[in-house]
Write a structure and sequence with these properties.
9 strands; alpha/beta; GH; disordered N terminus; polysaccharide degradation; carbohydrate metabolism; eight-stranded parallel barrel; 13 helices; TIM Barrel
Length: 346
């Protein structure tokens, strides 16, 4: 665990006169630089001081909009945490990106506890995503003095379906869906998402697409099919969880992003973290990823999996490895932050 003494061991990160989001939008040509966040983190004043700073973050992905947080019991929706996070973002002038409606390994217990027939399962997927997206399609923002703001769309984009493809390139069954049914489930949920909010962009996201291989090839095939059939798809999200020193070359990343932008859709880096203790290599790696996105006009923005190691999910998800984010446990920017600024600037 990091502490104040550990933080003091970092080489001093260069202070930029402009924050990461300002640089991303003005010099990088992107729509935003953002972060995922959770409601319990809002109890930490040091955290919210950074999160509320639009010059640092122009977009928030609220984890409290995930399935287990919004419909832990079938048919009973809880939007309080999501509403609070969306209102915070709107008050700050930040975009909101909806997290995945469906992730194969993040289904709530009530879904996993019953062997649901294929047709019923499709209806459950569609009903959940429709209700969730429709709730946040149009909201009224009330600021602290109770003055009403114009009605506005709460979410700019939704990562509707995540991790639909196995490492071998096959379509992953979802929940109790039989093998081979995953494609139809994805398409049906994309239609449901579009119907719930025609103004929000609909994305499919995946990890393991940053290097050429079966996942990238399979996703390309699916996108080409969806476009040919008129299935709603506006973008592909890259869930980029790297190890320090394991980031592909800038040229490789550019080629992979352009695989999809060449089809007329956009891409975004929806979850970025780079885990490992070598902070100078980490700086280089962050710069590589950011500069690759900058080089592709259709790469619209970058979202961190969170911004501080204090609240990072990386140690839990990747076997104890950590130190993956640009701010340390004490909210001090690491050299990685300089890498981000350089990536958008150079």
């Amino acid at each position: 665990m990091e502490n104040a003494f550990f933080s003091n061991c970092f080489p001093s990160a260069t202070s930029s006169s402009s924050g990461s989001n300002t640089v991303a939008t003005t010099l990088g040509g992107k729509l935003y630089f953002g972060t995922a966040a959770d409601n319990y983190e809002l109890n930490d004043p040091a955290y919210t001081a950074k999160l509320n700073n639009e010059s640092l973050f122009g977009q928030i992905t609220p984890r409290s909009l995930r399935w287990d947080a919004t419909e832990s019991v079938q048919g009973f929706f809880t939007f309080d945490d999501g509403d609070a996070m969306v209102a915070l973002a709107q008050k700050n002038g930040q975009l909101v990106r909806g997290p995945p409606c469906v992730v194969y390994n993040e289904l709530p217990n009530w879904v996993n506890s019953v062997n649901i027939a294929t047709g019923d399962f499709q209806n459950i997927l569609n009903a959940h995503c429709s209700a969730l997206i429709k709730h946040f399609a149009v909201v009224s923002l009330w600021i602290f003095n109770s003055e009403a703001i114009d009605w506005m769309t709460a979410t700019d984009a939704w990562d509707v379906f995540s991790e639909p493809i196995s490492d071998d390139g096959s379509i992953r069954p979802v929940g109790y869906s039989p093998s081979g049914q995953g494609v139809s489930f994805i398409e049906s949920v994309l239609y449901a998402a579009r119907g719930a909010d025609p103004d929000a962009k609909v994305y499919v996201t995946s990890s393991n697409m940053d290097t050429p291989g079966p996942v990238l090839d399979s996703m390309l095939n699916e996108v080409q099919h969806w476009l040919a059939e008129g299935v709603p798809i506006d973008g592909i999200g890259f869930r980029s969880h790297f190890t320090v020193g394991g980031v592909p070359s800038k040229e490789t990343l550019i080629a992979n992003y352009e695989t999809f932008t060449a089809l007329g859709i956009e891409v975004a880096i929806t979850e970025l973290d780079i885990r490992g203790a070598d902070i100078l290599q980490q700086q280089t790696d962050y710069q590589t990823v950011i500069s690759a996105c900058k080089a592709v006009a259709g790469c619209v923005g970058v979202t961190l999996s969170d911004f501080t190691d204090k609240y990072s999910s990386v140690p839990a998800e990747f076997g104890g490895s950590g130190m993956a984010l640009p701010w340390d446990y004490n909210f001090i920017p690491k050299p990685a932050y300089d890498g981000i600024i350089a990536g958008f600037t150079n």
